Amino acid sequence: MPAPPPSMPPPSPSVMSVCKNNQVCESVNLPPWTKITLASSDSEIERLIARNELKDAEITYFCHVPAILQDGPQCGLVALAMASQEYTKPVSVGQLLAEARVRGFTQHGEVYSVDYMATLAAEYLPDHRPDILIDLQACPDALTHALSHGAMVLIPYDSDFNHAPCLKRGHKAHWALLVGLISSRQGYYVLSRHGKSRHLACWPLRDLIESNGNLEEEGTARHAGGYVIPKGGVGGHRGLRARALALHPYI
């Protein structure tokens, strides 16, 4: 992956929120070196571009990461395991689940805290630097900045019947791994993988950020024995709302 320009300021070691004069994501001027050309093997992306009728679409960033399907409420751990395949020492969902249980982050595989996910990423993905992105609705440029500079992004959102972003106040909370960014006349779209499909998904970035910002509480249909909820709740400062985790590769 290309290295960021030398003038790019280093992010905070634990929390990064990038905003250029409070402009929305459509106003980001992406560096020219991020533009890539689709290979013939990327026909799935071409179909997604056609299906969404994206005009003048440019693939700003894309990382080939194989899909992993989840077994039970393990979507966050599955997304992290998928991301680890990009690095030198992939980690299994089973390893992540065992560690998350030892640390008291989960009972059944659920992860309702971006902070918990960052701790697991720091422990098991040694070839990257995890940064928590905050206030995503106020500053959506954080996501486009991270993706256009070579990071994958783990992001929680509400998942609709077709797994696209929706607004259910967190009752359908799910994790996705953002592996691509498309710029077009219609705005930015993200390419993502998640544990309920073998196929890439393509969503409007604005829809995803809105869904992420509506995560307020866990759903009423809970696993027997309950879930581990961080102090302050799903919508709190250690929870899921308006937050994501960028995984920056070490160059």
UniProtKB/TrEMBL annotation:
Q: Which GO terms describe its molecular function?
A: aminopeptidase activity
Q: Which InterPro entries match?
A: ACTMAP
Query: Which Pfam families does the entry link to?
Result: ACTMAP-like_C
Q: Which GO terms describe its biological process?
A: proteolysis
Tell me which UniProt keywords the record has, alphabetically. Answer: Aminopeptidase, Hydrolase, Protease
Q: Does the keyword Hydrolase apply?
A: yes
What reaction does this catalyse? N-terminal N(alpha)-acetyl-L-cysteinyl-L-aspartyl-[protein] + H2O = N-terminal L-aspartyl-[protein] + N-acetyl-L-cysteine
Q: Where is the signal peptide?
A: none
Is the Cell membrane keyword given for this protein?
no
Give the family, as the similarity comment puts it.
Belongs to the ACTMAP family.
Name the record gives this protein = Actin maturation protease
What organism does this protein naturally occur in?
Fopius arisanus
